[in-house]
Write a structure and sequence with these properties.
The protein is α+β, with helices and mostly antiparallel strands. It contains four helices and ten strands, in the order E-H-E-H-E-H-E-E-E-E-E-E-E-H. One of its GO terms (molecular function) is acireductone dioxygenase [iron(II)-requiring] activity.
């Protein structure tokens, strides 16, 4: 099951857990109210998994690739990690399925506080278009993930502030309806 919690305010190494004290865990229902969807799948059978195929068909995830983020596999590793950790949004959903390793997705709640979502092998997440978020590895410095898209991939990240974008406006309206 997914592990998520409110983060502390520390500027220490982002690869550390950064749990707020006292601990403030976040459950799946609270993530759903933010538009974040989560599945636990069997990563060992990702190439022929009927459950993954069902999700892909229902949500029109027609395109996919696999990325490995580690010093020896990703060109410009340090630069890419810094870029992934900059707060940003996309105008499309961001879908990631962890096939090996682990890392963190951080998302903003309705009050603009950071929630950290620990992702490990078998975890699949969909972040809605317009949500401010960021990603980092954990202290193991390795993750292998499937990236999924509806149609052709769009890699554009819009750094904060990006409130002028229609995707952000739609997301803010969604949050108001779930309040």
């Amino acid at each position: 099951m997914v592990q998520a919690w409110y983060m502390d305010e520390s500027a220490d190494d982002p690869r550390r857990p950064h749990r707020a004290e006292p601990s403030r865990p976040v459950g799946l229902e609270q993530l759903r109210r933010l538009g974040v969807l989560y599945w636990k799948l069997d990563a060992d059978k990702h190439e022929n998994d009927p459950e993954l195929e069902k999700i892909r068909k229902e949500r029109n995830y027609s395109w996919m690739d696999i990325i490995t983020i580690s010093k020896d596999k990703l060109p410009n590793y340090e630069e890419k990690l810094r870029m992934f950790y900059e707060e940003h949004l996309h105008v499309d959903e961001e879908i990631r399925y962890i096939l090996d390793g682990s890392g963190y997705f951080d998302v903003r709640d309705k009050d603009d506080k950071w929630i950290r979502i620990f992702m490990e092998k078998g975890d699949m997440i969909t972040l809605p278009a317009g949500i401010y978020h960021r990603f980092t590895l954990d202290e193991k410095n390795y993750v292998k993930a499937m990236r999924l898209f509806v149609g052709q991939p769009v890699w554009t990240a819009y750094g904060r502030p990006a409130d002028h974008l229609e995707a952000r406006g739609q997301y803010v309206r969604f949050l108001a309806q779930t309040a």
